[in-house]
Design a protein that fits this description.
alpha/beta, 9-stranded mixed sheet, about 250 residues, single chain, Rossmann fold, globular, two-stranded antiparallel ribbon
């Protein structure tokens, strides 16, 4: 039987999500699409709890994983990249920030495959010393619309704009194309790139929409939500297969 790598997907705090009523017990949750995307690519998904206050247990969870998938979600705490909050900063989840940054740092140090989607791209960037625009409309001159949120009536698979993929990048190889059209559900974006990261895709307004880390290890982050698109798009599905194959090689 072909080896199926175990992919850890950190959760988020239920109470950090917009529109969640009060009175519910403290809970960890995550969108099912990330788990189905990993499963469709041949991986075994593993929900990672936000045990930020128990590093020994978190390390034990990490060591059982062949790869890390950092999913989308709420904004990061600006203090993580040494900035003050912007007036348009959204909800944050400090426990999630702590866990995901730690997992990203461990994975990069160990060469364990790491894939970041939307917020996950931003976590990778911050883990490597980068910074974020806290609100693109206010902070990035000439920015196009990036915040096609479901709460504003847009479907999650709404194709919002093209991105140009960097020639020779893992993404260009995975997609077999120089340009792809993507969905877009974010109001923040990369400002200063983290150490050792190279841009792998650009939006029409020049915003970096994907990054990679050179070398043999798999470190890739994209600003869009491919877990939604992989159901119908074979090229997007190939991105998840490439990540899963890297995790399988690491885990053997």
């Amino acid at each position: 039987m072909k080896y199926r790598p175990t992919i850890g997907i950190p959760t988020q705090t239920l109470q950090a999500i917009d529109g969640i009523p009060g009175g519910l017990p403290a809970s960890w949750v995550m969108n099912q699409r990330y788990f189905y995307a990993a499963t469709d690519a041949g991986a075994v998904p593993w929900m990672v709890p936000l045990i930020h206050d128990d590093p020994d247990t978190l390390r034990c969870v990490y060591e059982r994983l062949d790869g890390i998938l950092l999913a989308g979600g709420v904004d990061m705490e600006p203090a993580r990249y040494h900035e003050m909050p912007h007036p348009k900063l959204g909800n944050t989840d400090p426990a999630r920030d702590a866990v995901e940054l730690q997992l990203a740092e461990w994975a990069i140090e160990d060469g364990k495959p790491l894939l970041g989607l939307c917020r996950g791209l931003q976590v990778i960037n911050v883990a490597l010393g980068g910074t974020l625009h806290q609100d693109l409309e206010d902070q990035l001159p000439n920015a196009i619309k990036h915040d096609y949120f479901p709460t504003a009536g847009f479907e999650r698979d709404h194709l919002a704009h093209e991105v140009e993929l960097a020639g020779g990048s893992r993404l260009a190889t995975a997609f077999g194309a120089g340009r792809v059209t993507v969905n877009s559900m974010h109001h923040q974006g990369l400002k200063r790139l983290g150490h050792d990261l190279i841009p792998a895709a650009f939006a029409p307004d020049g915003l970096v929409e994907a990054v990679e880390r050179p070398g043999d290890g798999f470190v890739v982050g994209v600003q869009w939500h491919p877990e939604v698109l992989e159901v119908k798009d074979p090229r997007t599905r190939h991105l998840f297969h490439t990540f899963t194959e890297a995790a399988a090689r690491f885990g053997r």
